[in-house]
Design brief:
Protein name: ATP synthase subunit I
InterPro entries: ATP_synth_I
Radius of gyration: 29 Å
Subcellular location: Cell membrane
Number of helices: 5
Organism: Aquabacterium soli
Largest sheet: none
Oligomer: single chain
Pfam families: ATP-synt_I (PF03899)
Mean pLDDT: 83
Shape: elongated
Length: about 170
Amino acid sequence: MPSSPAVAPGAPAKAPATAGWQDSFWPQQEPDPPVQPLTREEAQALIAKSPSLSPWRVIALQALIGVVVAVIWGGLSRNLPSLISALYGAAVVVVPGALMVRGVFGRGARRSLGGLLFWEVVKLALVVALLALAPKWVPSLDWVALLVTLVLCLKVNGLVLLWQGSKKSRV
C-alpha cells in the first residue's frame, strides 16, 4: 500500500486532487432549476402583456417628427432652403431605415443575425451616401437645419424604447 509523501514542516500543503475551480474565489451556487416550456395559454398571456411595436410605426413616427421639425424650422427661419434642408435631414433617417425594415421584415426575408447585419451595413452606407450628396442635391444647403432634424428623428428610437419600458412597468 503506497503511503502519502511526507510534507516538510512549514511547507504549504497541496490541495487535494479533487479541488477544482469551485474552490476558487467563486462561491458555491445551487444549480439553476430546469427550464419548463410555456403552455400555449401562458405564451399568449405573455405576448398580450408586452406587445411588440411594429418597426414600420417607428419609421412613420420618425417621418412625422421630421416633417413637424422641418415645418417649424422653415416657419421660424422663413427660409425655403432651410425647410428643404430639414426635410432632407428627415429623409436621411427615414429612407435608409425603411429600406432596412423592408429587408429585415419584408416578404421572403430570412430573419437571421447575418441578414440583420447586412441590412445595417446597407443602411449606414446609404446614410453616408445621402449626406455626401446633400450639397449637390439640395440648393443653398443649411447644414444646421439638416443635422438638427436628423438628430431629432434619430432620437425617436430612444423615445419609443423609453415609452415601451414605462408602459411595461405600469402593467
